[in-house]
Write a structure and sequence with these properties.
By secondary structure, the chain is an alpha+beta fold. It contains three helices and four strands; from the N terminus they run αββαββα. It is globular. The chain has a two-stranded antiparallel ribbon. A two-stranded antiparallel sheet has the order 3-4. The protein has one domain.
């Protein structure tokens, strides 16, 4: 439950300031040739909220399920989950605001 990729979108969209960013060069096709351009994005390789430790995706998903959303079922040998994406996204943003907007210092 800690690998729901949709939650990275929620991290990007939630209106909490001072998210950790990372900058790195990427090759882009510009005027018929390759140019290296530096890009900046939220650092989703770890927690994007500065000064906050730990992984929280699984906690959000478990809270979403506990609130009566989504479905769990067996698919082959794997326990699987089906989530309504818009509802999970809204739930996750509200959860992050409550959990991370108290202290937004870098």
């Amino acid at each position: 439950m800690d690998t729901v990729a949709l939650l990275h979108y929620s991290e990007h969209m939630v209106p909490i300031p001072n998210k950790r960013t990372v900058r790195y060069p990427v090759p882009l096709l510009c005027e018929g040739g390759r140019a290296w351009v530096e890009v900046e994005e939220y650092d989703t390789s770890r927690n994007v909220f500065s000064g906050r430790g730990g992984e929280y995706f699984a906690t959000m998903v478990e809270a979403f399920l506990a609130a009566g959303h989504g479905r769990a079922a067996q698919v082959g040998a794997a326990r699987s989950f089906l989530f309504p994406a818009p509802e999970l996204h809204e739930f996750a943003m509200q959860w992050m605001v409550q959990a991370f907007s108290r202290d937004t210092s870098p």
